[in-house]
Every structure is written in C-alpha cells, then in structure tokens.
Amino acid sequence: MSDIKEQVRDFIIENFLFGEGGEDLKDDDSFLEKGIIDSTGVLELVEWLEETFDFKVEDEELVPENLDSVNNLEAFISKKQK
Amino acid sequence: MCGIAGFEILGKAKGFPFEKGQKVLERMIWPLKHRGPDGFGFFLDKNKGLAHARLSIIDLEGGWQPISNEDDSIWVVFNGEIFNYVELRKELETQGHHFSTSSDTEVIVHLYEEKGLDFPVYLNGQFAIALLDLKKDRLILSRDRYGIRPLFYSRFNDRFFFASEIKSIFNADNALKREIDPQAIRDIFTFWSTHGERTSFKDVNQLKPGHLLVIDKNHEITVKDYWQIPLGLKPPFNKGEGEICKKLKGLLIDSVRIRLRADVPVGAYLSGGLDSSIITNIIHRYTDSPLKTFSVSFTDKVYDESEEQRLLAGHLGTEHNVVSCSYKKIADLFPRAIWHCECPILRTAPVPLLMLSGLVKSTGYKVVLTGEGADEVFGGYDIFKETKIRLFVSRHPDSNCRPLLFKRLYPYLALSPSKSAAIARSFFETDADPNDPFYSHLPRWKTTSSLPKFLRNVLLDETSDSVSLLEGEIEQDLKRLDWFSRAQYLETALLLSNYLLSSQGDRMAMANSIEGRFPYLDHHVADFAARLPTTMKMKVLDEKYILRKVFENELPQEITRRRKQPYMAPDILSFFGEEIPDYVEYYISDETIRNYGIFKPKAVEKLVSKCRKNARQGFRENMAFVGILSTQILYDKFVSNFEIKTPSRLPNVKVVRRENCRT
C-alpha cells in the first residue's frame, strides 16, 4: 500500500469511523453513499488535505471523482503534488 | 394537568391488603409530584389501584380525582384537558346524567357510560386516562391522538403497572427489573426517537397515541387504536383557495378559543416564527384574554431569535417575558433534562425549553399555548422542501444547475455540501428510487446510520436494523400516500409524538408544573389540513403556504415572509467551552464508559478527543456526543443509582376504598 493511501485510510478510519469497522472499508467505497462522510465531513476532509499535503483545494475540485473514496483521494493527492 | 399511576394484580396472584396497596400507590405517585403538586388522590380495590397527583387548572375546588359516576361503579383518574367538556356535558345532561362537579374529568365517566369503549373518539383534548369499570371488572387506559400526554405500562409477571412517567413504575417496587433496551438506543441513534410501543427500557411500553388498552375480567390485555394519522384517509378537497382559507381560519380560532378554557390565566410561547405568532395573534384579536408571552433568547446569536420575538410582542402589545440561555446553562441543566426525558436524546434542544417553563412558573402562570404541530400538519419542515428538490433533481440527473437549489435550502449552514453540485447529488441521494416509502428520510438516516456503531458489539448483536423494523411497522400505511404526505406521516409518527411532544414538550413543561396546549393539533384542524392538496401545503418552495395566506394581513411582513428558522440549541459547544463540567468528565471517562458497558470505549475516546480539540463539529459528531452523554446519564439515574425517597406519609392525600363505595 502506498504511503498516501495508508495516510488517507488512517485519517478516514480514525476521524470518521472513530476506529470502528476499518477492516470493512474498501478502497473504492463511496464515502457519501456509505454514509461515512456527512455534509459537514466534506469540509473537514478538505481542511485535512490542505493542512497535511500543503496545497489548496479549489471549489471546482470539490467533486466526488476527487474526494469520494480512498482510491479517488489517493489519485487526487498524487495529481496535486506533481 | 397532572400525573396518574396505578396497578392491577393479574392472574392467580392475590391482591394486596389495602395498606400495602396504598403504599404502592404512594410510592408510584410521589415521583410524579412535579406534574401535580396540589394534592394526591387514590382509589383502592383489592387487586387494583388508581392514583392521581393534581395540578389545579379547571374547577379549582371540585376537581379532586379519582372521580366516579352516580353509583360509584366507574372511577377515573386523568392527566390532561378535555377542551370540549362544556359541549359534552350539555349533551350528557340532556341524556339524563347527573354531574356532581364542574370539572372536565367528570365528563369522561358519563361519556364512558354512554359510549363504552368508543368514548375517546368524542373527546377533543390532550389526555392520558385510566378508568375502572367495577361492574364489568375491567381497567381501561387511553391516550390522546397525537400523544401530547404520556402514558406507560409494564407487566412484571402477574403485576401490571401504569403511569405518566417511567420513574413512577420503577419506584412501585425496587425489585422491578430496570434495564436499558439496546434496540431503543439503536432506534434513537437512527431516528432521534423510538417508535411504536418501545421505550428506552426493556419491558416498559408506551401506550401508543390514539390507542386504548383494556384489561378485562379474565385479565386478558388488548391494545387497539381508536384513531389513525388522518393523512390519506379521505380524498383531498376540491375547493377554491378562498373557501379553504375561510374555513381554516374559523377552525384555528375555535381551536385557540377552547384552549383558553381554564380557571387560571393562559399564556403563550413565542418563538419568533410563524406558528407561535399566529396563535398569539389569534388570542390577541379574537379573544378577551390579556396576554403574557414567553421566549428564550440565546447568548450565541446563531441560535437567537429575540429580535423577531420582540417585534411581534410589540406589534400585539403583549406583556413579554424572556429568559436568556447560554452554553453554561445548557450544560448545567442537561442532567435534570434527562431525568425528565427518560430517554437518550441526540440534541440539547430540550434544555432551553426547561428554562422556558421555569420562566412561566416564576410569573405564577400554569398554562401556555404553543405552536408545536404546525410544521407536521401544514408541511413546514425543510425535509419536505429537500424532498421536493431531490425529486426535481432526479428527473434531470445530468443537470448541474438543479442541485444548486439545495443551496437555497440550507443557507444558514456554515458548512454545507451545496458548494459542489455533484457532492450534493450524492449526499442527497438523488439517485434513490422515488417510490421508496422512506424516500424523504433517506439522507437524514444516512447521516445517523453510523451512530449505532458506538454501541458495544455484544449489545448491537441483540438488535436489528432500525429502518427494517420500522418498515415492518408502517410500510402499509405509507403506501397509500403521495411523497409529501409520506414525509409528513413519518415526521408525525416518529418525531412529533415520540420526541417533540415528549422530550421537548410535556416533559420539559411538566418538570416545572407547566401545561402546554397545542392548537394546531386539535383534531378538527389536523383532519382538515390532511385533506389539503399538496400544492396548498407547499407552493413551489413556499412552506405552510395556506397558513401564511390566511394570516398574511394580520401579521407583520417580517414574520409572514420570514424563512423558516429551525429551532436549535448549541450541542458540543455547550459542554466543551471554556470549562468542561465535572459531571461530563465523569460520564465520558474511560472508566465510566467501561463500567456502564454500553459503548465502545475506544470509539468514545476518539470522539471525545475530537471534541476537545475543537468544539465546533459536524452534525454527526454533535448527535453522537449528546447521544452518548445522555445515555450515560440515563443509565446512572435510572439503572445503577435509581433512588427516590418516598416520605412515609404523603401530604394532602384523599383515599377512596372500594369497600366504602355504593357499588
């Protein structure tokens, strides 16, 4: 598992699942559909991304393709870091 | 307003000797003294007993209970009000019944003589009734249509107990089992309330609103409804708007008028919103009652509506009273609120209402009219708009403009998904099947779906999925309804009866011996509203359209044109401000969490550390924290350390014994 993916998984499990049920979280599970992240959680996620990886998330980047699963997040972070 | 309690010994078990029976009634009624501080009355038979704690509102001298019929063969104790008692009494007198008091209670016994088990159908009011028919040897319990007044019952082996509050049943005998029901926690953590007969405690049921319970002479217990939520029972009106407005206005004025019947002055809660403004306006314009109004203001402006409250009080010239609510006051009063709610809650919103009833009490008033119920009956909640927008979006799933409407819906949310159309679509489940009977509530329940995971697995394994259980219970009722009425039905069956009227209603008011009255829940008003075409409830996205229309010329535009502001109070912020109260630290400590054994210690610890870092959290964290804290308090006060000291002699007691009766 890549470092980024592990970091993302840890954050999601720790912060949104309160350490519970991490083993059931698949890398392509949709956070929104599964109820893992609620409406306010999206903003929390963005805040974490900006602080941890030191980039700014633009409004038009707030789309499920970038944010809505472990895999999507990994791809998004890698792209932004290039 | 009052509290009631009682018992019946079932089966082959022998009855209590009178002395012991009276002791049981004393133990049961004492915990309800906040509901009725003005005196106690008992009726005792060999194997049955009725108890009453009285708050004098109608017939201050003659209103003692229990009350009997002419030959003492029917006895009743009752909590609440029968607003149409004047009309019922006239009718009963012409049928030959003799009244010995001028109280509304006495109407119940004579009506029962006349109508038998159908008697509740004729009552316009808010009530929990226990009636003993000595000739037929049966006990009858009944509860009002929307569940304004509470009534619980429990069967422990051969003993049957009932009471206005659960603490009364538990105090009947310390040996009774007191155990939290994990399914109830799961349900509350999903819907904000239990549903059906379930309460937070195993083996304690609520008598459902609009239901009747009968224990016959063979000790068989039957429960049946005498009323159903009126949505979809009759076809929608086919009348013009003008005619509907006129009729509705008349019904509302009548409803307020009969709710002003009391031998003490009646005040009104004023939230600043449309519903309570209309009530206050009706009292002001269409009755002679001098008016005191009561409001809560919040030190945190996010929650405060005092400007609108002052505006309306000024407009109508009421004598306005305000109590100010802060984070600290919410934290201080929270445990007391839980003692009265008798269930876990996911928000602190009941606490300011506890303060509000305290304010009313301090002015010497005992009765207030409130606007509760209008949002369910006339369609005022955001969830109705949200559902409409979701349906609109789902018809053109590729449109990027349509989801922007969500933005219109939640502008007051500082953090909102509406920034991104695609995220909004996913969050609001616009791809869900619109024919799903629970379509309207899917986004809400998704937000709460992860909360039950805080329960320890061993408890979770005892439970079933809350939504599936609910489906089994009410799916059939929902099928006959359109999307709007389905949402209304769910709000009424779940939240109105089991949370708003109890945790935010009866319990917080009665904690300070205050009686709330609800003009929008008059069944004539609600039955009429149930037949309104959907477009008259919501026009485009204009909520409670018809209600606004009826009163638009009588209220300031700032009130009638104002967007609905949901009533909220600060949650985590109240507990993790400058200072964390000691009791909070105690209940959420790893040790207490482990000792009580309800929640997963590690998950709670992670949640708590998140709150400590930042008290401004999302919906889910707020609900989880308040839910966990309230459950811990409930467990402490009702399971592990339940103790009510009943004095050896109660003051102001009147006892009637069967052996001394004419029958």
List keywords for this structure.
heterodimer; A: 82 residues; globular; B: 663 residues; alpha/beta; Glutamine Phosphoribosylpyrophosphate, subunit 1, domain 1; seven-stranded mixed sheet; six-stranded antiparallel sheet; 42% helix
Spans of chain B of at least 5 consecutive residues whose pLDDT stays below 50 are 412-417
Low-confidence stretches of chain A: none
What overall form of chain B do the CA principal axes indicate? globular
Query: In whole angstroms, how far apart are the ends of chain A?
Result: 19 Å
Helix content of chain A: 40-55%
Which band does the percent of strand residues of chain B land in?
Answer: 5-15%
CATH class of the largest domain in chain B: Alpha Beta
Query: What oligomeric state do these chains adopt?
Result: heterodimer
Largest interface: A-B, 27 and 27 residues
What is the terminal-to-terminal distance of chain B? 29 Å
Q: In percent terms, what proportion of residues of chain A is strand?
A: under 5%
Categorize the overall geometry of chain A. Answer: globular
| Number of structural units classed as domains of chain A | 1
The helix/strand class of chain B is alpha/beta
CATH superfamily of the largest domain in chain B: Aminohydrolase, N-terminal nucleophile (Ntn) domain
Count of helical stretches of chain B: 28
Structural class of chain A: mainly alpha
Strands of the widest sheet of chain B, in order across it, are: 10-8-9-1-3-2-18
Number of strands of chain A: 0
